[in-house]
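Q: What does the assembled structure look like for these inputs?
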Amino acid sequence: MTRNPQLTAEGELKHLLTIEGLPCEMILRILDTAAPFASVAEREVKKVPLLRGKSVFNLFFENSTRTRTTFEIAAKRLSADVINLNINTSSANKGERLLDTVDNLAAMQADMFVIRHASSGAPHLIAQHLAATGCDHIHVVNAGDGRHAHPTQGLLDMYTIRHYKRDFSQLTVAIVGDVLHSRVARSQIHALTTLGVPEVRVIAPKTLLPSGIERLGVRVFHAIDDGLRGVDVVMTLRLQNERMQGALLPSTEEYFKAYGLTQERLALAKPDAIVMHPGPMNRGVEIDSAVADGRQAVILPQVTFGIAVRMAVMAMLGGT
Amino acid sequence: MTRNPQLTAEGELKHLLTIEGLPCEMILRILDTAAPFASVAEREVKKVPLLRGKSVFNLFFENSTRTRTTFEIAAKRLSADVINLNINTSSANKGERLLDTVDNLAAMQADMFVIRHASSGAPHLIAQHLAATGCDHIHVVNAGDGRHAHPTQGLLDMYTIRHYKRDFSQLTVAIVGDVLHSRVARSQIHALTTLGVPEVRVIAPKTLLPSGIERLGVRVFHAIDDGLRGVDVVMTLRLQNERMQGALLPSTEEYFKAYGLTQERLALAKPDAIVMHPGPMNRGVEIDSAVADGRQAVILPQVTFGIAVRMAVMAMLGGT
Amino acid sequence: MTRNPQLTAEGELKHLLTIEGLPCEMILRILDTAAPFASVAEREVKKVPLLRGKSVFNLFFENSTRTRTTFEIAAKRLSADVINLNINTSSANKGERLLDTVDNLAAMQADMFVIRHASSGAPHLIAQHLAATGCDHIHVVNAGDGRHAHPTQGLLDMYTIRHYKRDFSQLTVAIVGDVLHSRVARSQIHALTTLGVPEVRVIAPKTLLPSGIERLGVRVFHAIDDGLRGVDVVMTLRLQNERMQGALLPSTEEYFKAYGLTQERLALAKPDAIVMHPGPMNRGVEIDSAVADGRQAVILPQVTFGIAVRMAVMAMLGGT
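A:
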């Protein structure tokens, strides 16, 4: 039996690579740990000394100012030293192997790597390599890898749902949009099913759904009106602009007509349904501005909770 | 009556958007607050804990390493956590709206935004938006917007003049160069007239002066020799290289011949006149090296005072 | 007699510009100072307050994420405020002179400049300029200048050799590769000869050796098998990819066949010989993966010791 590489033998969090396979209790523990950090942000001095003297490396092999910023703030509020590395512009150009870069940073006595990479599985590979080279005191946090996973996004989404809905066990949740290319959707589906949400729906055209998606425990809808009916939570996905240029989609206008979240469509959901989006939004593509700025949107609270959840994950890792 | 958006109902500094409309007492208060920070820099440990635990975001929509650096140092010497964001290279590419970016950073519990933007009025717009969205606990500092304003530059210039001349009420000050495109010149003019400088001159060819500039309370000179005669302070402006390619100017050589500040020309000013420049200098274009490095130049003290003035502004904002 | 510009009149370290001319006792003092910092990194909290409140500027006129990162970590572990500046993307574009940039940063009350520059001698020039302008309280650390010197690399290499071999006085050391273009090789040769290593060899084709290299006190070998025989330490050099495109080298395959360090070749050295590389490695060009990952390689310990050596240099400079 292979142990979950994210957990120690004692079941403590060692890395955060994916939500898939993470026990329900661990997800809930992360959400519980995040709660006081949400209030840290409201204190006069937002810093706590939990990671003082620790070196956190933001290793971004793919550019993302927004995600990097959330991790940078979270680490600084924990009093860590933060080093930002945009790897594409440096060693990668000089032809150094990914794992040589990792070895070097490990030799600089890193305590944590926050990794964003265009290739699915890169953070796993790095975590395995650290174990194989005797550096498994270094913790890895996946900040998004290819189409695979974006676990802190999934966790902050769960924090948000719990904040507004309290209980997962009675919910119907719809995920709308480009599920095929979305690491966010995968992390959300694993989190929702693990937490016992009885009905998770995905709403997308066939061309934007991976084959066999039903095996993840979701119900597939191709017509958005059918899919939104009676849901408690609508999770919209960002449409990657680059998909527009391929054959997958006719145009953003067509997409909005068929799948954009408008006030009219949202009216099909429960009256107290909340609307989420991982950002950055394409207004008028996957979501109408009236919805994005409307009373049901919880898109900005997601961002706030995201800092707290990242602080929780880093604090839990830093303490093991 | 509309209140000055930079001040609270109690008249405290809330944002620093422009010097226009800032009361004389407030300008003097900023200069007074800056004085001890100038000496902080000479202490063994240059840090003070006034902004400890606060999150300052440097939002640079236009690249400026030098200005960003001065704000970064000022904030770090106040013990703030500083996050640098070059927005042009990230979300802006992904098509996110400016105000969505602002909303997101506000949701990350920012305490202060230092904003540089190519569009005049962007910091005002952001400050208004923060007020409209209930985020007006976040302070905005304009670090240069389009041709509009660069208030911390104007303030550090006033600090410098006061340092060398003590009293504003007897001075003749000349601003030389490309006033038309210069946010620095606008901020200087508003500061000088507010502080009661009896004669503020602008010296430039007609093509580099905005129409109606006299309404700001300045005297216009087209011939540099006339304009420099008897002045106490010469404030040179940077000539934007990109103006050279348009029809506005024949060549940098021609410009230097007509408006470059040389030792000969400087001799027309008072013997103890000081020479200022906001940097970076184009030696041999708007200023001769002999003047830039001469005994009357106070260009480097301007930089030193600039850190102190930015610390003062940030400390005053952070305390409200 | 001109005094060594790196030392004060009392013989204390004032700048670190090059290893050439640095007294043996000073090199040993730096290595001794580094030793406790190597253990700082293993403590729970890796920070020491030696540079608290000091402003360290990383001035990189040439891009090098790896070297910049090592200095950034070292400075942060000493509790300094660190400002990173990639100068090529900013003022340099606006046409500002190098020394005007330096003057400005000095006026911001910098305490230390860590300088990387493509031109040999740039850090010397800057140190001289600081002295001439009354700013010689600011310390300069050369982080690599053109083909001239990379003194912290040379020092960390000496730390590594001493760690594994204890005594310099009985060693035979071979430096293999592109000596002609390598600032690393120059710093290594000066350090080794100053520390009394009796035999320093360089192994390279004639086209990759500077003329008159023997005058530095080294023995030249063109055949790698001859040069490696009986050595205690093999220092491989990185082959600059850009050299490949010129006429200097036929191809990377040819180079590897003639000069690549393989297990077979390494077997000619002493059985306990260590293998070093400054990184980033070109596997299969100057070094075979079996050697790079083999039991004799000390390439990652070099990185770890590099942080300690940089902390030592910065702490010694910050204390004078």
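DSSP finds twelve helices and nine strands in chain B.
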